[in-house]
Amino acid sequence: MKIINNLVYTYKKYSFLMYQLVSRDFKVKYKRSVLGIVWSLLYPVLTMAVMALVFTNMFKFSTPGVNYLVYLMSGLVIFNYFSEASNLAMSSVVANFSLINKVYIPKYIFPISKCLFVGINFLLTLIPLYAIILITGTGLNIYHLLLPFGFLCLFLFTVGVGLILATISVFLRDMFYIYGVVLTLWTYLTPIMYDIAIIPAKLQIILKFNPLYWFIYFTRDIILYQHIPGINVWLYCLAFALGFFFLGLYVFKKNQDKFIYYV
Q1: Which CA distances in Å does 256 have to 159, 169, 218, 252?
Q2: Is residue 104 within 8 Å of residue 246, measured between CB atoms?
Q3: Mind giving me the DSSP string for 33-83?
Q4: CB 158 within 8 A of CB 82
Q5: Which residues contact 118 (CB under 8 A, 6 or more apart)?
Q6: 260 near 101, Cβ under 8 Å?
Q7: CA gap 174, 170 in Å, rounded
Q8: Domain ranges in the chain?
Q9: Which residue, among 107, 111, 93, has the nearest Cα to 173 in the 3D structure?
Q10: Residue 32 CB: number of other CB atoms within 10 A?
Q11: Distance between CA atoms of 188 and 196, rounded to whole angstroms?
Q12: DSSP string, 203-234
């Protein structure tokens, strides 16, 4: 409880700095970009279009009973958020060493600000997702109001992983390259473009240890199958979210005082 109180107090005290960091990231990302923020809307659509063409025509993937485009897009927006946010969070401390050396700033502000920045982009990607939902006739339902729970769990999980990666990358710069390989493997171990039902039962058990599987499952259960996820799905999402969030805080807090020696 103490660590949460400290986190809330620090956030209130340094909320202006958090705002400035997120604002800076937006300006840097879209600097000299002709389309600017429109890319946040176009990128997931273009990615979905390419993947849909490849996996439906070449590999003949399908999802019986539901629209494949919505199935694919709902998985992509979840995984893309995690992938981009965790990558940026990983390098956030190292990239701000010059600032950390000059003034006192709670160091975990940097990974969290990256997750918030990508979170804003994530909210923008929901616009094309819902456009596809409507265009394909998948339809809306009252259960969509439950989606923020899944998104919050995804955010907490990503922050936790980001804090762990940010800590490791200070001591081991090779992590920047290693994590790229890990993410590639993680992509294929997450049922984004394929239905887990096509995987042998024994392998399905292994895939279900993947936290992102449950965040995507929660989202698709509501959007595609239009019913409330089972209580076990809620518990898995919450357990992975809080487990990794507190683990990330613990690992980061325990090692942050050593960061200065690895500049």
Answers
A1: 16, 12, 34, 6
A2: no
A3: -SSTTHHHHHHHHHHHHHHHHIIIIIS----TTS-HHHHHHHHHHHHHHHH
A4: yes
A5: 81, 84, 85, 88
A6: yes
A7: 10
A8: 31-262
A9: 93
A10: 5
A11: 11
A12: HHHHHTT-HHHHHHHHHHHHHTT-SPPPHHHH
CA distance 124 to 91: 24
- ∠ at Cα 37 (34, 39), nearest 5°? 75
Torsion, Cα 52 120 177 94, to 10 degrees, reads 170
Six-digit token pair at 52? 């849909």
State residue 194's pLDDT score.
87
Specify the residue for token string 């809307």: 41
Give the model's pLDDT for residue 215. 98
pTM of the model: 0.90
Instruction: Kindly list the distances between the CA atom of residue 52 and the CA atoms of 67, 83, 146, 234, in Å, as whole numbers in the listed order.
Output: 11, 20, 27, 29
| pLDDT mean for each 10 residues of the chain (263 residues) | 65 76 76 63 71 62 79 92 95 85 82 92 89 88 94 97 96 92 93 87 90 97 93 97 96 89 74
- In 3D space, the residue among 48, 40, 45, 47 whose CA is nearest the CA of residue 121 turns out to be 40
pLDDT at 95: 87
Tens of pLDDT, residues 19-65: 888 887 777 776 665 556 666 667 777 777 777 666 666 555 667 77
